[in-house]
Amino acid sequence: MKNFAKDRGIPTLVFLTKIDAYDPDLLVEDLTKAFKSKRIMDLMPEVATLAGVGGTKDVFPVKSFSHEYEPNYEVGILLFRALEHALYAATDYLEAVGTEATIIEPQTPTQVRATASWAAEDAEEMSLVKGQLYIVESPDEDGWLKGKSASGSACGYFPAMAAEAKYRQDMV
């Protein structure tokens, strides 16, 4: 998922939850000091690196409403701040890609590689050879694909579970 977003320029943010577990010195009544906590500040670059985001500016420490029975302003302010930045990032992204929203329908992969050999059982089916490429023409009901061999010498239906998608780069 991270690579999908990264390849498309979609901003990735990390919500570092349960910060009170990382720094027990933080009191619920004083969570505004989260950004002054050495433990939290030392953890943020590590989390940013592990998540592969742009840096600590994309990591937001928050405390979950896990033990509070009533809404707590101090807990909520960190969460709302993180959500506000997420909305800013989404707005910036949408403005960068254009003002008109386009719905992109999922596409059938144009090529698949057989992950297992499979023998056709009737004339409408096509046998697969493990490791060979096949061109998908359309998906069918019940997990079958209609396609042809990469050489074009055979065509028919084959089980989707016996093939692995190989998406062309220009389709993404």
Automatic annotation (TrEMBL):
One Pfam family, short name: SH3_1
Keyword Nucleotide-binding: no
Alphabetically ordered keywords of this record: SH3 domain
Matching InterPro entries: SH3-like_dom_sf (IPR036028), SH3_domain (IPR001452)
Residues annotated as domain SH3: 107-168
PROSITE patterns on file: SH3 (PS50002)
Protein name listed in UniProt: SH3 domain-containing protein
Annotated organism of origin: [Myrmecia] bisecta
